[in-house]
Amino acid sequence: MTDIEKRTLLDMRKDRSLDATQKAIMRLRGWQHIEIVTMDMWRPYKTAVKQLIPNAVIVIDRFHVAKMAGEAMEKARKATRIELTDKERKKLKNDRKILLKRRDKYYRPQ
Fold first, then answer.
1. pLDDT tens for residues 7-47?
2. How many structural domains is the chain composed of?
3. Which of 44, 82, 83, 84 could cysteine-pair with 88, CB 3.0–4.6 Å?
4. Is residue 19 situated within a structural domain?
5. Which of 23, 24, 21, 20 has the alpha carbon at shortest distance from 10?
C-alpha cells in the first residue's frame, strides 16, 4: 500500500486475503476519508474497499489494463491467423510486431 500523493510506502503484505486487506486498510490513519484507491484487479482488494469505503473511487492501475488489452489482442490475432491460408499467413509474418507498435510510429494522418 502506498500514498501516491506523498510517494510513500504505507504497508507491505504477504497475505492478500479479504480479511488481511481489510485489517491493513483499517490500520491506516484516517482510512475512512480515503477518496481514491488505485489497485490491481485482485477481487479481495475491490471487495475490501467496497465494504469499508463504499464511496471511494476505484481506479485500476494502467499496467494491469495494458496487460489485459495486450493479452486480448494476442488472442484475437491468433484466432484470426488460424482461419487464414498459408499464403495469407506468410503475408502477415510480422503482424505481432505491427500490432505492438505505437500508433504514431506507423500512422500519419493526411
1. 888 888 888 899 999 999 999 999 999 999 988 888 999 99
2. 2
3. 84
4. yes
5. 24
